[in-house]
Amino acid sequence: MKESDKLLLSNKAWARERVEVDPDFFRRLVNQQRPHFLWIGCSDSRVPANEITGTAPGEVFVQRNIANLVVPTDLNLLSVIEYAIEVLEVEHIIVCGHYGCGGIKAAMTPRSYGALNKWLRNIKDVYRLHREEIDAAPLERKVDLLTELNVREQVANLTKTSLVQRAWRRGRRPWLHGWVYSLADGILHELVSIAPGTPVDPIYQFEFDE
Ligand code: CO
Question: Taking the model in full, what pTM does it have?
Answer without folding.
Answer: 0.96
